[in-house]
What does this fold into?
Amino acid sequence: MGGRIKPFKLSFKTSQLLKPARFFFLYIYRVKQTFPKTEKLKSSKTIEKLFLEGDSHFKFPIKIFFLPANENENNLAAFAVPKRNIKSAVNRNRIKRQLREAYRLNKHLLEHIHGKKFVILFLYLGKVNPQYAHLEKAMQKLLKKLHDENS
RNA sequence: GCCGCAGGCCGCCUUAUCGUCGUUCCAAUUUUUUUGGAAGGGAGGAAAGUCCGGGCACCAUAGGGAAGCAUAGCGGCUAACAGCCGUCGUUAUUUCUGCGAAAGGAGAAAUUUCAGGACUAGUGCAACAGAAAGGAUGUACAGGUAAUGCUGUAGUGAAAUCAGGUAAACUCUAUGCGGUGAAAUGCCACGUAAACCUGUGUCUCGGUUUUUACCGAGUAAGGGUACCCGCCCAAAGCAGGAGGGUAGGCAGAUUGAGCGUGUAGGUAACUACACGUCUAGAUAAAUGAUAAGGUGCCAAAAGUGAUUUUGGUAACAGAACCCGGCUUAUAGGCCUGCAUUUUUU
It folds into this structure.
């Protein structure tokens, strides 16, 4: 874990804007906020399995499917936006990027489930382009719920 | 200055932090590799539709025939084209010139339309009007004959025996077209590996012959390329099963009919030469988030006005082997040309 901890350095202005719950985690130490290839879910078999066997939670507009996968080193995550709801390719891409961003900034919420790792799929079910702030809120609630159930 | 039309160009910017995908360099670990750091780069004019044309790759089927599809004045450009340029004809608009009492019609220029080969090969079709609209022929008057709508005029119509009109009607003529499509294809790794089992499947008649087989004819009739001939396969082909392996890596893949500038040739499209330049390469698919400032647009308020303040908003849209076009979508801005109107001199 040593390589993943960085000294906390934020300006006064930014830290003022942070909410208390998030502020707590960040104040102790800072989880590295990266999202490299090794944390992306790529196997089509696993994704199929997720839809068939995975448990799900829903908080508008995001639905998540997840399965425990303790043999993995990292949590694996994938993001999907159905073509049925969002027609434009540009908007689909954008929502996927925003989902990924929201996950990247909030994945530290899953760090404290010691030993337990998950395979997660995030599915966007809204029919219009979202505000990023709403997405992030929903993401935080879902990750917290997952955390509380398994700790 | 305002508004309109046509053509061309651009199509949000800057900074900071955190991320993300390649490249290069450095350090650590080291066979590969992995991790960290630094530098520099990272979507479009249409990347879209997949409508044409190529490059490139492959094929047991690529040849010939007919069919089908595409193109269509003439000349040029190009790797090629259904594209582009020039030109002739043609459609329409505007302006000018001169003719005329007027209605009108003539010529020239600019822009613009065209599915612009052939109805003297054949077939089909044609509203209204009209006796009659396609091997047609009636009435009135006049003429003529041995006799007859035989001839002329009137009448209908765009057109009445005239080489009529029509090919975004069949058709004919000329030219072109093998098919598939980067999920192609090649290599590496894994694997006993063009391996195993089951089913389907090569017809009928005649002749030669002991039989196999060969020859000929017929049929939709073994399989393959839509069809036929030809050709190829027969240890083939097709379908299923069991078992194994796997959605792996590298190449293809980004230096190219590339881009920029200049000179020369050409009416132009474009071409030649010289110099400079490297500008995305992902693969469950890289460009995002946050903050601040600016820019454009819209709305409201204030002001005679220049303008200021506040709020909102950021068009269409995401590379997927690569090029040349076409078509469609597109907020807003800039430039050029033409025409109208207003003001000033």
User: Anything to note?
Assistant: Residues 3, 10-11, 13-14, 17, 33-37, 40-45, 47, 78-80, 88-91, 93-94, 97-98, 100-102, 104-105, 132, 136 of chain A lie near RNA strand B (CB under 10 Å from a C1'). The first strand of chain A starts at residue 5 and ends at 6. The CA atoms of residues 70 and 117 of chain A lie 5 Å apart.
